[in-house]
Amino acid sequence: MVLIDYKNVNVRQAEGELVLEKVNLQVEEGEFVYLTGKVGSGKSSLLKTIYQELDIDEADQATVLGKNLLEIKRRDVPALRKQMGIIFQDFQLLSDRSVYNNLRFVLKATGWKDKGQIVGRIDKVLKEVGLLDKADRMPHELSGGEQQRVAIARAVLNEPKMIIADEPTGNLDQATADSIIELLRKIAQGGTAVIMSTHNTALLDKYPGTVYHCAEGIFKKM
Hints:
2 domains, globular, 4-stranded antiparallel sheet, 222 residues, Rossmann fold
């Protein structure tokens, strides 16, 4: 099943500057996709169009999870995002609450009400990312790699159809970055597509996937 289908999509930054022209991108269930390129090449802007932080105004086709992004209404964007997990380079955890309560906040905000189901789901995802014993820790008590694992746990809470990861290893050392990629690949093997931007090309040889490159306004499959 095709989850993302972009045909000749032009990607503009929030200020209106064209950063990528005629993007053709197809992503299927369980696919592991790298977006490569230098800082400022348009990787993050392209990802933002997928979760609709940036609008698309020029394209032959732009569908994500069956939704036409050329026609989507703003009120329908939260429902679209609920089917995705989004991971950022700087983790974006809530600093005033524990790991457990960071995850609980997301579940409550997305409609979960049953306390037993909430506890069970949080325990399950923390076990998957190897942090079940850190549930009561505050974010500042965790290493960078552990914080990113919490961010991944948060992203998979609602069993999304795809994970969008914007430079998820950018602030991590190589060994920690490797462990994060291994975790994301395991998620992809379970059927969830992963679309990840990176400038760490060493990862590509070690952990193969579908590779697209952004440079000087051109987007191409490698």
